[in-house]
Amino acid sequence: MTTSSTTHVPAEIDLPDIQKLVMRQRNFFASNTTLDVYFRKEQLRLLLDAIKKHEQELFDAMYTDFHKPAMEAYATEVGFVEIELKHTIKKLTRWAKRKQVKESFLNFPAQSHIYYEPYGLALIIGPWNYPFQLLINPLIGAIAAGNCAIIKPSELTPSTSAVIAKMIRETFHEEYIAVVEGGIKPTQLLLQQSFDYIFFTGSTRVGKVVLQAAAEHLTPVTLELGGKSPAIVADDADLELTARRIVWGKFLNAGQTCVAPDYVLVQEQVKEELIHLIIQCITEFYGENPAQSQDYARIVNDQHFNRLSKLLKNGIVRAGGQKDSISRYIAPTLLDQVSWQDPIMQEEIFGPLLPIISVKCMKEAIGIVNKHPKPLALYFFSSNAAKQKEVLQHARFGGGCINDTISHLINPNLPFGGVGNSGMGSYHGKSSFLLFSHQKSVLQRGTWIDLPLRYPPYKNRLPMLRKLFNWL
Ligand code: NAD
After folding, report:
1. 205 alpha carbon to ligand 1 midpoint, in Å?
2. Cα(245)–Cα(118) distance, rounded to whole angstroms?
3. Which positions fall inside the Aldehyde dehydrogenase domain (predicted)?
4. CB crowding 332-341: b at 16 or more within 10 Å, else e
5. Which atom of ligand 1 lies nearest, measured to the CA of 227?
6. Residues with Cβ < 8 Å from 335, sequence gap 6 or more?
7. C-beta 184 within 6 A of ligand 1
């Protein structure tokens, strides 16, 4: 396994090169090559082969970047993307067919269809926490819908960025699918160009920058952002199972997961028992000293390590709390007695610190959730169907699980995305295809009859029209 700390620095791309690249992609798109569904499926198969070929390199790169365990790199990145690719290849012919819809009587005689048309050029900007999956999964949707694309990996995971760039350049011509590596500057240059779709995954702060840039060209945008996703635990939940599923979802990728439970709201009578079970579970998963565990990732860079170290000062540490700046290790940590005024409750934690807060009842928990910006995910643990219904009906959030964490992402039939501050638009499976497609609505009118009712002079036809509308 490569653990070299040599940082890959990509060659800086300048404005004329980016303009040339965009122009070449425009010309290629105009050739109509990507309109052919067989072409798209072939490209998806090529992508699948390339991923399989580079699998070990990807694992090594993600380990180099922040010690992502190979099991997690497979389950949540490479294997995850492979499932999405296979699902899309299998279903694409059906998805891409024009769809006939019911006709309005007013248009008689006619037929109406929806045609799925690629937007054209897509720009896909990825974050560092799932540096492969969150860049390639949207790319699958862009290819499936027949777009050209430029993808921009995060500069904070340089080794993974380098492998992605190599893999994409070996597999596709640049005028079809291209990679631009680097940080803020190349992203800003890209955002100055006119794209037909922008798909951004990252922070709410940068999401606003992207949305502003897109407005300049009236480019449609999907924003996959973050936020504080709660796990709510009712007193009738299976607490052992709840502890296991919360610990798994929280400390996977060392808490650097957009849909990780950010904090726990637990009914006060079971709080101590849940804390006890969570602590037990952390030891079961990562051993007495998680620093020695092969299954526990590191914090991505010094800036995030320092930010999280400051947050560690909030509340009372009930488990964990240890850290090491050299290896950027922060132990899985459980925090009690935090207040809503503490910095840890004011920002997305995005690390292995789990505050636990007691509530009296579900109504109070729902009130807390709805008082804050709408989270990307919400997890509710309870064995009571009425309570489950209450939370689902009244709490506002992007998506989530009952009695689990994170697993809603695995089902390609569930659109994944945020709402409000946690994002706009959703993808995965068919939703990705639809997201990157313009739905062109076309009415084909019969010519053998042409009723005169709609044409001027209208004379006294209004009552007749009103009758007709009332009858419909
Ligand atoms: P980020 O917003 O800092 O960076 C994302 C991308 O934007 C990177 O490619 C980066 O190079 C680029 N970028 C950064 N600053 C920029 C600027 N000023 N102008 C233009 N481009 C800029 O996010 P991150 O730190 O990479 O990722 C963490 C955030 O992403 C968290 O908030 C997390 O919740 C969110 N996230 C959301 C999802 C989701 O699916 N909703 C998934 C993963 C992460």
Report:
1. 8
2. 39
3. 12-442
4. bbbbbebeee
5. 34
6. 312, 314, 315, 316, 317, 318, 344, 353, 354, 355, 356
7. yes
What confidence score (pLDDT) does residue 2 get? 38
Whether the Cβ atoms of residue 375 and residue 348 lie closer than 8 Å to each other = no
For the Cβ of 411 lying below 6 angstroms from any atom of ligand 1, the answer is no
**Helix, strand or coil for residue 129?**
coil
Closest CA to 65 of 207, 161, 164: 161
Give the per-residue pLDDT at 6. 55
Ligand 1 pocket mutation pick from 125, 130, 150, 206 by most atoms within 8 angstroms of CB: 206
In ligand 1, the atom with minimum distance to the C-alpha of 210 is 20
Question: CA-CA distances (angstroms) from residue 445 to 42, 108, 112, 304, 452?
Answer: 36, 8, 9, 60, 15
Domains detected in the chain: 15-225+425-439 (3.40.605.10), 230-417 (3.40.309.10)
pLDDT in tens, 321-367: 999 999 999 999 999 999 999 999 999 999 999 999 999 999 999 99
Q: Which two tokens stand for residue 372?
A: 């804050």
| 224 in catalytic set | yes
Q: Which helix (H) or strand (E) holds 201?
A: strand 197-201
Predicted confidence (pLDDT) at residue 8 exceeds the cutoff of 80: no
* CA angle centred on 154, ends 150 and 156, rounded to 5°: 160
Contact of 363 with 380, CB cutoff 8 Å: no
Closest residue (by CA) to atom 26 of ligand 1? 127
Overall average pLDDT of the 282-302 stretch: 97
pLDDT of residue 1: 38
Whole-number average pLDDT of the chain: 96
> Ligand 1: which of 151, 154, 210 to mutate, judged by most atoms within 8 Å of the beta carbon?
154
The pTM score is 0.95
Do β-strands 230-233 and 221-224 pair in parallel, antiparallel, or remain unpaired? unpaired
pLDDT at 7: 65
Distance (Å, rounded) from C-alpha 403 to C-alpha 382? 7
77 burial type by CB count under 10 A (0-12 exposed, 13-18 middle, 19+ buried): buried
Residue nearest to atom 15 of ligand 1 (CA): 184
Token readout for 207 is 């999401």
The alpha carbon of 99 is separated from its chain's Cα centroid by a whole number of angstroms, namely: 27
Phi, psi at residue 381, to the nearest 5°? -110, 115
Percent of all residues in the chain with a pLDDT value above 70, rounded to a whole number:
98
Q: Which residues pair with 31 in a beta bridge?
A: none
Measured from the CB, is residue 258 less than 6 Å from ligand 1? yes
Query: Is pLDDT above 70 for 5?
Result: no
Judge if the beta carbon of residue 301 lies within 6 A of ligand 1.
no
